[in-house]
Amino acid sequence: MPRLIAAIDRFTEASGRLLAWLAVAMALLTALVVVMRYGFNVGSIAAQEAITYLHGTLFTLGAAYTLRRDGHVRVDIFYRHFSPRAKAWVNALGGIVFLLPLCAFIFAISWNYVAEAWVIRESSPEPGGIPAVFLLKTLLPLMAANLFLQGLAETLRSAEVLMHNRDASA
């Protein structure tokens, strides 16, 4: 189990570090769009859509990295005062009851939606837009799969704490 958890964590960390560069690209492209529009009175639908694609990619695929780094928002009025073992119970049950089923549900319901977009090679309805809406939609099942993997790792990590009384911060 520790090897599986470590492998998933390595994948998530590498993905997260790569995705972080999308934030830089998004900021630079946004600045370029603003300068071109207001400085030179030139617009680009494709550049504006590219910002949306980068934003969507960053946030959907970055969800697993955020989970790995314990960065998701939660109400922890009570949780923060729990012992490591009690936190492990909450995390394990939350993963099994909520997170993993939600990821499976999102994957299942998005599959046909994405498949249909691929069949017709759905493109932007805007003239001059990016002809790859089907790629943007593909982020939905990818997000669910990535988040499921990291959720599995977090649930297994909590199970290890419960079984072996180990520290959950590894």
Write up this protein:
The protein is mostly helical and 170 residues long. The protein contains five helices and no strands. The protein has helices spanning 2-40, 45-61, 63-68, 84-119, 133-164. The longest helix has 39 residues, at 2-40. It is elongated and about 60 Å long. The mean pLDDT is 94.
Characterize this entry briefly.
The protein is mainly alpha-helical. It is built from 5 helices and no strands.
Tell how many strands the DSSP assignment holds. 0
Described by strand count, sense and barrel closure, the largest sheet is:
none
Calculate Rg over CA atoms.
20 Å
Please state roughly what percent of the residues sit in beta strands, choosing from under 5%, 5-15%, 15-25%, 25-35%, 35-45% or over 45%. Answer: under 5%
Compressed to H and E, one letter per element, the order equals HHHHH
Count of helical stretches: 5
Number of domains: 1
Poorly predicted residue ranges: none
Distance between the termini: 13 Å
